[in-house]
Amino acid sequence: METNFFSQIANLNITGDLQLTLSKAAEGNFVVSLLLRNDQCGDDARKLIPPLSLKGSIEELDKGFFENITAPLKTTSGLMLNMEAYLKQVEEARRQSEMEKEKARKEKEEKEKKDKKYKEALKKADELEKEGRYKEAWSKMPSPDNYPEYAEAIRKRKKELSDQFSPNLFDR
After folding, report:
1. Which residues have a Cβ under 8 Å from the Cβ of 150 and sit 6 or more positions away?
2. How far is CA 96 from CA 42, 78, 105, 107, 122, in A?
3. Which of 90, 119, 144 is the endpoint of a domain?
């Protein structure tokens, strides 16, 4: 006797392990239980999917078995694949989020460092100005190119300092 049962199972093109249980029921009927397991799917919700059960006589099962299992098994297989793809995307999003947080943290640290350097330079220039050492104070001022957000204030301050040690002869 030749059968094409396994060929038809293979043609379902499902992902995972198909467990088939055949039990004899009352009145000459049989119960066929099919459970699709996909251990590649990391979502534990896959364990909540119940087995597909068919009950009928041998003749009924012979006639309608594949007709009745094809759609549910393909749906279940697709669901498990989607669940795994979803988990991978969530993990990727989490990693990307962590990378963005780390990038933002580093940018903040660099900005704080840069601001600290700027304030220290201004403080040093103020101290030197109070001592009447205007040229040195001017030279301690940060470059406007390094601090574009403070460029106008730096230029103004440098001009004030340079006016102290190098008066403009044409201002008379």
Report:
1. 118, 142, 144
2. 20, 27, 14, 16, 39
3. 90
User: Could you report how far apart the first and last alpha carbons of the chain are, in Å?
Assistant: 120
Domain that holds residue 78: 5-90
How many structural domains comprise the chain?
2
Each residue's pLDDT expressed in tens, for the chain with a length of 172 residues:
677 888 999 999 999 999 999 999 988 899 999 999 998 888 888 888 999 999 999 999 989 999 999 999 999 999 988 998 998 998 899 888 888 888 889 999 999 998 899 899 889 988 888 888 888 888 888 888 888 888 898 889 888 888 877 766 555 4
